[in-house]
# Entry
Amino acid sequence: MGQRGFWDEQQRVAKLKEKKPVLQRLSESIPWDSFRPLLDKGYVHERKTNAGRKRIDPLILFKMLVLQQLFNLSDEELEFQVNDRRSFEEFVGLGVMNSIPDATTVAFFRERLRKAEVIEELFEMFEAYLRSQGLQARGGQIIDATLVPVPKQRNTREENKEIKAGRLPEGWDENPDRLQQKDLDARWTKKNGISYYGYKNSICIDVDHGFIRRYAVTPANIHDSQLLPRLLDPENEHDFVWADSAYSGECFEDLLSLGGFESLIHEKGARNHPLGDKAKELNRVKSSIRACVEHVFGCMTMSMGGKLTRKIGLERNDAWWGLKNLTFNFLRYLQRSSHIATVA
# Structure
């Protein structure tokens, strides 16, 4: 086999582009430039002099954050992959002659966006874009939560007791380096008899299009039902609300009724009062719609590299999952756009 020449390489690249990979479709379909004003707002900082290298285009860094969420990469792995893979390099808008932002720069940029409270604004901006494209929330809404695991903390029982009480364990303030590695916000919870440690990502999706319309990130021990008022989307064109039995109860039924919503929440049995056949059948009917929200979590688990998060503290996890929810909506937009084009 002979040496590969310039035209061979060009032909190889052309064949790859013919297949329309996901990153290429994202580059072409998402209105990236519309995010620039918000990214500039989060990236602004005073320079004492004009010396030194020019700042990196925030849109490049934002695309790197999207890549990070697509594949659940650490900052260091993200830097390596953008250096290593042509498709990643082209997606973020860099060429072989450009230097790649390092892991520290990416982390610094994400922190700036978090502190400027820009990430939720980016999410809302894309929500407005979806509405402008005729993809407004319709068909009712489905609410659910998924557990977000984080690395377990190796604390003593006494230390955990102090943390749970909202106090700093004795001696921790004397070692700032150690304290930086301690997550004081993550909590333990049990589900189906299994203990989990971390946070929850609670979401509301619309039934017709399947986009995440609202979200909330909390410690894992916060009960799902406490987030219901925060997740309800009043802009959905239909009043139906689906949710599993974790959201059941008279107080929540009253809340939905006061808000003008129609409850399709699963009924829940009680000790010595199991559900009857009619209630079980009704729950099965509701599940045929409610199950759509599981596809969102399934996509995050199977297609977006999993849910394990290595960020410390509620604020950083909120920023991380805000970006992940936004990235899911980008992927969902590709699916809906393809579907609309096929139907047309």
Notes: Residues 138 and 278 are 28 Å apart (CA to CA). The mean pLDDT is 88. The chain has two domains: 14-44+53-116, 136-150+186-341. The first helix runs from residue 6 to 18.
